[in-house]
Structure formats: C-alpha cells, structure tokens
Specification:
two-stranded parallel ribbon, mainly alpha, transmembrane helix, single chain, DUF247_pln, 20 helices, three-stranded mixed beta sheet, transmembrane
C-alpha cells in the first residue's frame, strides 16, 4: 500500500538519489543564477505540501468532538480569568428555596442585574430616573462623568456577580448608575431627611411618610438584589466632591457609605432597640479582603456579629466527637435543670451559659425575619471568605425550639418577642430555615457552649433537683400542698413514734 509520503513524491515529481533521473528543483526567475539554497527550498516545499496532504487525508471531526473542544476552550478561559476571586453577589442556592419566592425575590425594587427588567418591578424605574435627575440638578453634575466613572470599572463590577451577565455594556453601565444613585439617595434621605434633598413631603418614595419604605428596605437586603460597595463609594464621591475618589480603588469601612447603609438597614436588625450610628463612631468590625466588592448585605451581616468573637485557640478546642453533639430543646433542658434568662444586649448572637443559666439576647420576629435570615444564610453558604456564624445561631435556635411549648417558655422569659399568628408559626419558621442547610458543627462558635450545656444537663443531681422544683415548687399552690404534705407526714411519724414508745415504756 502506498503511503502519503510516497504518493506525494510521485505526484510532485521528486526522485530519489539512487535514480539516474535528475531532480526537478525550482530555480527561481530565469534572470537569476542558480542558488545554493535550492535544495533547502525544495525540502521546505515538500514538508509543507506533505503536512497539508496529511491534514486533508484525516477524517473530519464529528460535531460531538467539536462541541467538547469548544467547551474546553471556554473552561481554559474561565480558569485563566479566575472570575470567582472577586465574586461576592450570588443567587439563592436551589436547596434553600421552598416555594416562598417573597423571601428572596424583590417585590418592589430591583437592584443589580439579576431581577432587572422584571414586569412587577418596572414601576420603580420612573422614580429611579427622577432620582438621577434630582441628583444631577442638585450637584450641577454632568451625566458624562457618571458614565465615564462606571465604564472604567464595568469589568470589575461584572466580576462581582455569579454567572454570566448577558446585558450589553451600555445597559449594564446605565443600570449601575440608576440603581447606585437610587440607593445612595435613600441612604442620604434617611440620614438627613428627604425634605433637605428637595423632595416634596408627599413624595411617594422619597419621603418620611412613604408607607412602602419597610418593604423597600427588605428588598434591598436580599442576596440577589445587591450592588458592590465600590460603585456606591465612587458615585457618592462624584456627587459630593465632583471628582473621582480614591476610594473607588481602595474603599474602606470608615467612609460615608458604610455608616449610611448601616443606619438605613438598622430597623431590620432582630434586636430590641434601634442603635443609631453617628458620624463619629467607629465601625465595630474588621475589614475583610476585597471589601469594595462586597455588597450591603455583608456589611449588615458583619454589624450583627460580636466584634469580640474570635476563632478559638488550639488549646481550648473540644474534641470533634463531643462538638458534634447537638443541644436539646428547651423542654428537655428545663427538665435537666437548665434555666433560661434574657441577656441585656443588642448583639442577638451573644449567648452565654454559666451556673446552669442560659442567657440569650432578645430576638424580635416578624413577617420579614424569615427573609432576612434566609438571605444571610444563603450568603454564608455561598461566600468562602467568612465564618458561618449566622447559620450557627439559627441552627442553635432551631434545636432549642422543637414545639410551641418551647416558644411559649422563651416568650415568657423575654427571649422571643414575635408578631406572628401563633407560637407554632415561630417553631415552624426555624424548622423551615434549617431544613436543607449544610453546616459543619465543628465550625460553630457555639460548639463549646453547647458542650457545656449538655454536660450540665446530663448530671443526675441536676435532673433530680429540677424535677423536684417543677413538680412541687412550680406555683404557690404546689408549694402549699408540699408543705402540708410534709407537716402531715411529720405528724404521722410522731403519732407512730409515741404509739410504739408507749407500748414498750408504759407509765408506772
């Protein structure tokens, strides 16, 4: 069988050296003398023709192979881009969805690309344009500078969002400016008053009388409804200073935007009182890597955490076998002698256990609590640069609350205050939140506390003392009955004693 090389030699007129026939060589134009490099040129022409022939003789690639190669090329590009390095705004994981879209889908206003253009949210667009017009008019600004600012960081902003954003460059930049200015105007109006910004007292959105403001706040704290902090920082600096601020490249938590954001979202905190953040107060948490890429949701989450809360030292760690034990419900712990008391603090995660008393800060529960916790848990489940402290707290409360009796006792102790229909709905709320959460108990900041509570409740003397108190000293009537029973028992004993004593020692 004739191979490609032999076939090529035969058809191109090449001859072997053993043949008496002369070799045909390209000599160039007739006017030029023969060149000593002619054999080299001949060899190059032969190799090139041979490669083309071999390529033509190969069978064509199937569509399946072509599709796989295209996917590998895309995978290589994604791997080189490392787009996940700045990823901070995610979609709700599918396993956390339970059919209640209102818990994670905005109902009034969209911020960012995930829900942009949805029909039920388009009504707010006219107020966004009106807001941008008022800002430009108030600051004598030019829209060209806003476009130039956001255009410079468009790639960085896109990298913050999970998945591919299919919007064109013009639409994405326009959306960032509209949504960013809208958010800043709400922050600024909440701090200084919308009247000072030039809005009418009866304005449907930018007014202290706006009845939909709580719903807007709830929408703006959702995981899928976020905008990076560096965008807000840059737009704010452009509005108030008329120039590009250095914070656009290196934003920090001491700037105006974090303080304004925490003040705006403060009513959503599940604590018992509003804590106003003044302009002179230092924010009580440490900066994280890529702080500018983080959204307002993470800023809010950090404000809920205890600043003194640090990872445990290696010497104080509890063995994994013990740490994996879960805390019992309120009813079982009460039977084991554990008492529940409210702790006076606005840090709702600051839980303590000492001398058989479990102190838990008060938790306010309303219709928006489930949405708040769901989005915070979803962020912790998605983001890799933070601890799962909110998740640990919710799972801890879920284990404590197993029935409406548990909720009723915590309510009586001032630990839970709710505006839901019944105590059973509160128990169902925590059970639904933690139903599909994937969580390592060894990473919980409450692991050591849980171990101490379980150790205390496992002692028999504590159980006996608790049983005595619950059965005989739970109310005044039980105490009176117990004392009466003791007196009756003592009198019966004395009567029996004197009867026996008189029998053996009769009077003389």
């Amino acid at each position: 069988m004739v191979g490609p090389r032999e076939w090529l030699r035969a058809h191109l007129g090449f001859r072997s050296r053993s043949s008496n026939l002369s070799t045909t060589v390209y000599q160039g134009p007739r006017s030029q003398p023969p060149n000593d490099s002619a054999p080299q040129v001949q060899a190059e022409l032969f190799d090139r023709a041979e490669n083309d022939l071999v390529y033509e003789l190969r069978p064509p690639k199937s569509e399946w192979v072509i599709s796989i190669e295209e996917k590998l090329v895309q995978a290589r590009q994604d791997n080189e881009a490392c787009s996940w390095a700045k990823l901070s705004i995610y979609r709700i994981p599918h396993y956390l969805m339970d059919g209640d879209d209102k818990a994670y889908v905005p109902q009034i206003v969209s911020i960012g690309p995930y829900h942009h253009g949805k029909a039920h949210l388009c009504q707010m667009d006219q107020h966004k344009w009106r807001c941008l017009y008022r800002i430009l008019e108030r600051s004598n600004g030019k829209i060209d500078r806003y476009l130039e600012l956001v255009k410079k960081v468009e790639k960085r902003a896109r990298a913050c969002y999970e998945g591919t954003i299919s919007m064109s460059s013009y639409d994405f930049v326009e959306m960032m400016i509209l949504d960013g200015c809208f958010v800043i105007e709400l922050f600024h109006g909440d701090s200084k008053g919308f009247a000072e910004l030039g809005y009418h007292p009866n304005d449907p959105i930018f007014s202290s009388k706006c009845g939909s403001m709580p719903m807007i706040q709830r929408d703006m704290i959702m995981l899928e409804n976020q905008i990076p902090l560096f965008i807000l920082d840059g737009l704010f600096s452009l509005q108030h200073h008329g120039l590009f601020c250095l914070q656009l490249c290196h934003p920090h938590q001491e700037g105006p935007i974090p303080k304004l954001a925490l003040r705006f979202f403060d009513p959503l905190k599940p604590t018992k009182g509003r804590r106003t953040i003044s302009s002179n107060n230092r924010l009580e948490f440490d900066p994280l890597p890529n702080q500018g890429e983080l959204p307002c949701l993470e800023l809010f989450r950090q404000s809920l955490l205890n600043p003194k809360q640090v990872p445990e030292e290696e010497g104080t760690k509890v063995s994994p076998q013990k740490r994996q034990q879960l805390i019992h419900c309120v009813t079982e712990l009460r039977e084991a002698g554990v008492k529940f008391r409210e702790k006076e603090t606005d840090r709702f995660m600051d839980i303590e256990f000492e001398d058989g008393i479990l102190r838990i800060p008060r938790l306010h529960i309303d219709d928006g609590t489930r949405s708040l916790f769901l989005n915070l848990i979803a962020f912790e489940q998605s983001h890799i640069n933070n601890r799962n402290d909110i998740t640990a707290y919710v799972i801890f409360m879920d284990h404590l609350i197993d029935s409406l009796e548990d909720v009723r006792h915590l309510h009586q102790r001032g630990i839970i205050e709710h505006w839901l229909g019944s105590d059973a709905e509160v128990a169902d709320l925590f059970n639904r939140l933690c139903k599909e959460v994937v969580f390592d108990q060894n990473d919980s900041y409450l692991s050591e506390l849980t171990e101490r509570v379980n150790e205390y409740s496992s002692r028999r003397c504590n159980r006996w003392r608790a049983s005595l108190k619950h059965n005989y000293f739970s109310n005044p009537w039980s105490i009176i009955s117990f004392i009466a029973a003791l007196v009756l028992l003592a009198l019966t004993f004395l009567q029996s004693f004197y009867a026996v004593y008189g029998y053996y020692r009769p009077r003389s």
